[in-house]
Amino acid sequence: MSGGSQRGDRVFHGLAFAAGASIMVALAGVFIFLAIRGAAGFSAATGLYQPYTSFVPYAAGLLFGTALVAVLAMIIAVPFAVGVALFLTHYAPRPLSTVIAYLIDLLAAVPSVVFGLWGLKALGPALLPIQRWLNEHLGFIPFFAGEVSATGRTVFLAAIVLAIMVLPITTAICREVFGQTPRLHEEAALALGATRWEMIRYAVLPHSRSGIIAGTMLGLGRALGETMAVLLVLNASGPKITWHLLTSDNPATIASNIAQNFQGENIDLQVVLLATGLVLFVFTFLVNFAARWVVIRSERKFQ
Fold first, then answer.
1. What's the domain range around 128?
2. Membrane-spanning residues where (predicted)?
3. What is the per-residue pLDDT across 179-196, written as a single tens digit (0 to 9) for each?
């Protein structure tokens, strides 16, 4: 190997290491900032934790709302993302696949506030008849019980808006991993008499399992931290635990609660909000850590 190639390898290694280290430094900096500035928020005056009297139930209510909206969004988005990715890689003609993939990728460039305004002004009123139908026919299920919100600004609407927002990234990753399935595996399945769906089921999906999980977790991370869209479409009543998806009594998320209250003049409340931000940071880190563990285990099992 020539000296120029060795120098190039060393330069590339140094740049890659610096990029990875900078990410770790940035994450550590965010964690240290939230820990230092928000430490006092864990034991602030009881009046700052309304409707509770301590930090733990206050943060638990916000964390419940965050997880509820994000998980519902992923339940809606993941089947669509997998279906769209399979259509683009195994069913659609190449010209049509290219156009649809480009349009889906464009969704990722739309600002979240635009999604929020669209959900507030257009999608919310349009979904009101559906929400009333769900309440009328499926009201015996706790999720659809209660009095339907007249504005349509419910957890149900927030989950749908978030599902549309996370669809591009989840679809893009699924599309890439489906396209990396060994061609010989697909041709062997078809040669043995499998239909196209059987080939996808037994050759494509098992090979792509870890990629699907990774795309789902990246989308979940986006949904957990979304702020403006949720703030606009969700009529939040504060930190609380409720399973109703169609009423006006909705749990707030951590990110939207911070955005709604951080500009106030109460410094003590800002400290509490920073403490909840630390909770969200740690929770998101644990979710991604667990997802990475599942991906590694899935890859080893497949091998």
1. 44-302
2. 12-35, 55-88, 100-120, 155-174, 211-234, 271-295
3. 888 888 888 888 888 888
